[in-house]
What does this fold into?
Amino acid sequence: MECILDFEPDKVGEIMQNAFAVAEPGGASSEYIYLSNNKPLHVKEDSVSLIPPMAIDRYSLGILLDSGVLPSPKTPYKNLFVLNAGDSLNISSSDDSLFFGESFPFLRSLSAGNTCYLNDFESHLIAAAQKTILSGAPALLFLSGGKDSAALACALSQVKEAKDLHCITYQSETQDESHIAKKIARRLGLSHETVDIKRYRVDHQRMESYFASQLLPSLDLCSTIYLHCGLDRFASSTLVDGMGNDLFIGHIPSEKEYRFSEFQKWVPYPVKRTFGRLRRLHQGFVIGSKTRSEMVGMWTFLSGSGLVDDLAPYHLRRDYWESVDRNYAEHDYFDLRASLRGRYIDQEKFIRKIKNAAAAYGLKLALPWTASELANYCHNLKDEELFDRGRLMNKIFLRKYLTQKLGIDYFAEKKYTFSYNYKKFVIENSDFVRDLVYSAKLFDQKLIRNYYIGLVKKNNYGAIYQLFLLLGWHQFSRFVMR
It folds into this structure.
């Protein structure tokens, strides 16, 4: 079905006002506005392949490289915009001017404050999961021991169409939760396998193909994990993922982040800029220069580098984030974190890497937690059903549900951080990474070569990996005009 629509100027506000992340049940969340000869075209997630090559916007790339994400509606292209939760677009009927706005729909003050009944919640969850596999295609679930994917496993196990569901768990070298995932799959009677990466070397043609299908890059440090999972076996399957619920269930910070962010609220912007002038000396000065809004995680290993400054001057980046921060000055930090981290880092970093993997292997992507009925039910629960502010514990009702369904105490289960050995990836693919850097057209050749040599000498594998992700997209993506 054709999903690119012409806008009628007098109806655009009405159409786009509701274009937020959960607007399409089971969908992949984002919506795009592509300008063709100044004429706006509305592009759904399943039609991005129709977008032609586009010119890049160096300033936006600078924000991306510095912050790790690019807040909507910006993209790295001059004529493409992305809309996530609460974003809206209006077009002037007189001169076709574009006006973007945001009204985050999941502020806690907007919740009805209902009591959670686990049977009702489960019904919404099952309905959301069922919609993702109605096509009859085999379903593939990335199952960790975490609450979100575990809940989806429970739901999918009760859907009769899920007989072809297969679960995959990545066995981390550090905080390994594969033993929990195995236990969950066994109790639910689901097909399951564990991926234990022994070799990080990836065929060069496979990597070029991986980048070729990327509309937008992700700088997530686990981006290439999907290249090791044998996804070629599952062509035409539906890839089901547990991301997408933090923005309406409550984005809970660590105690360290919470305290530091509240401290940053009172540090004047000129003082932060003073820290920023020292950003080349130590990463700590980079963090000290960030606004309260950026404390949700808006930085990379490349923040403060000369490469970022080459794309977007430092003072312009500070102007941008200080403007964002003023708009959120009166927000409770939990709301601020849900809005900024939920919409930008979750959507344009974590979920974006999943979208890129699905595109590379020809998989349909399903994010059941983005179903509108499920999102609205969860958001309208009272605070104490969702989180405990005192203990900074999240997803209270979900812990109760899983403890009851699986017999695993999710109040006692420790928090695992998903990790991937990007250092080994860089080392075992060093020839491809080096050649990519040395052939890069995005930066001045002398600048990037000297910077890369310095990174190698310092064993700064995080910066090398994120630079690789950016340059791979820029050099091979079919959407980039060269």
